[in-house]
Amino acid sequence: MPEATHFIGNQWVAPAKSPAISPIAVLDPSDGQPFSRIARGDAEDIDRAVKAARAAFEGDWGRLAAAERGRLLYALANTLARHHEELAQIEARDTGKPLKQARADAAAIVRYFEFYAGAADKLHGETIPYQQGFTVFTVREPHGVTGHIIPWNYPLQIFGRSVAAALATGNACVVKPAEDACLSLLRVAELSLEAGLPPGALNIVTGYGAEAGAALARHPGIDHISFTGSPATGTLISQMAAENHTPVTLELGGKSPQIIFADADMQAVLPVVVNAIVQNAGQTCSAGSRLLVQRDAYESVLAHLAEAFAALRVGPSQDDLDLGPLISARQQQRVWDFLSEAQHDGVAVMSQGEVVGSAPESGFYQAPTLLRDVPESHRLAREEVFGPVLAAMPFTDEAHAVRLANGTPYGLAAGVWTCDGARQMRLARSIRAGQVFINNYGAGGGVELPFGGMKHSGHGREKGFEALYGFTTLKTVAIRHG
Ligand code: ADP
């Protein structure tokens, strides 16, 4: 693929304003140095992509039988699987994540395309019993042209969960990946050619959020927007989409609690609790970033966690350690700001991991940090850091745990550790979050599990069969036949 081009209608296209507008440099977070360039798209590029998608939706792609769409998605899944290691290497360099995480992400995108390939011809409407003389049925139809604004933390995975479901239901997609990490998705687009996806079904325009992203969100030719990213950007996107009454699915992050009761199986708890915050250097929407521990077990759990944190190693993606760098200097500064605020307010750092000596000074590194006794009203107990920072606090009883768990504006995920079956059920029902995990956290992230938020974590669901409802609209047909 030529450098600094968009993927529109199965062609690599230079930006409309090229060469007047220079490409965007792509930095390797492991050393902070530029190693590639992407096109800086604008409203004109987005418009071209929307037109290509519309033509596909109204043409060959839109007319394909559901089973045929499934076959094409399956072909793409197989192509992606054959290029698994290459995609993982691209993702690791572009995002800085350790290779093992990038390999897991490259495997996950294959699973998304497999899952939605199989689902393509299994979504159907219903017949509705109605008055004598009528037959009434519902039909699930694609929205048409769907817009997908993708963040930089898991490009392959988030593209997979949203685009595979949208294509499976017959939509044509326009994707705006994040300016900080989009190289793997451009390679996926190239591989979609090899898999035989018809022109216009998948289009990718790269560029800045405020330019290409905003142009996509407010384009009148977009019939649905799915967005994963920060709450502030989510609000802007909702406002822009509202100008055209375009439906939106928003996934906006969280401050998800991991709740440990004194009767929990502590051997099982500790590694999971650590992984839930250090995975992807804490840059995960559903990171378990608050640790609530029952008072009786608080000191002992924290002592074990402090040891585990101290043993964590941070380094370049190729070293494949516990954590890689953060995505950018901006993200690093954001985490530093949170930590200096903690220090200023007397919140104690209990333990930190280590950035290894081989990590270049110019990379965007941050040691994982365990904070104890974080007051429930503190910003660190309420706001998303999006870095490897775990805020611990004690609770007295079940009611207190539930109050703390629900005490932030977010509601994306929660983990509950207890051996008491009745309590497991009570917490599963009383926690306001889109996913509640009992005696685990994340359940391995299976593509089958619907995912999305309550409260400020967003609305709509992606993943699983549920996503197919979000990427379709329902038509009721009532036939009067006497
Ligand atoms: P971050 O601040 O961590 O980069 P964002 O939520 O801003 O997170 O970014 C997620 C995605 O949203 C990226 O693809 C980004 O380019 C895009 N984006 C950012 N600002 C806007 C905007 N004003 N309109 C549309 N998309 C945007």
UniProtKB/TrEMBL annotation:
Keywords: Oxidoreductase. GO terms for molecular function: oxidoreductase activity, acting on the aldehyde or oxo group of donors, NAD or NADP as acceptor. The keyword Secreted does not apply. The active site is at 251. The keyword Transmembrane helix does not apply. Signal peptide: none annotated. Pfam families: Aldedh. InterPro entries: Ald_DH/histidinol_DH, Ald_DH_C, Ald_DH_CS_CYS, Ald_DH_CS_GLU, Ald_DH_N, Aldehyde_DH_dom. SUPFAM superfamilies: ALDH-like (SSF53720). Residues 22-477 form the Aldehyde dehydrogenase domain. Belongs to the aldehyde dehydrogenase family. This is Aldehyde dehydrogenase.
